[in-house]
Amino acid sequence: MAKIVLCRIDSRLIHGQVVTKWVGQSQANRIAVVSDELDADPFMKNIYLMAAPPSIKVDCYSNQSFAASWKENQLGEGSVLVLFPSLAAIQDAGGARF
Question: Can you name one GO molecular function term for this protein (predicted)?
Fold first, then answer.
């Protein structure tokens, strides 16, 4: 089971503040980006994945695939920073029950 060290709502998803401050402060070794729009756009997904440092593993989920992954194995292993673009995305992913 992964340890969620920070869950953040930010429409910018991965950006400088997340990479320089929040990853370090939370000691996350993974970022889970949960966004239907980003998951459906391979080009933009690739841009966001490149924004993270090489030492940080980034996974991109649709709202429903995040909920399924959480239900199946609680996102696997590691310390995870979870990013949602909006409260609506959290609700669509099953609420804040994770």
Answer: protein-N(PI)-phosphohistidine-sugar phosphotransferase activity
Domain hosting 56: range is 3-92
Reading the block at residue 6, the tokens are: 């920070």
- Domain-embedded: residue 97: no
For the chain, what is the largest distance between any 2 Cα atoms, rounded to a whole number of angstroms? 31
CATH number at residue 12: 3.40.35.10
User: Residue 29: inside a domain, yes or no?
Assistant: yes
Among 15, 42, 47, 88, the active-site one is: 15
Mean pLDDT of 41-59: 94
User: Exposed, middle or buried: residue 95 (CB in 10 Å: 0-12, 13-18, 19+)?
Assistant: exposed
The reply to whether 14 belongs to the active site is no
Instruction: Report pLDDT digits (tens) over 14-27.
Output: 998 888 899 999 99
Q: How many residues does the chain have?
A: 98
- 98 is a domain residue: no
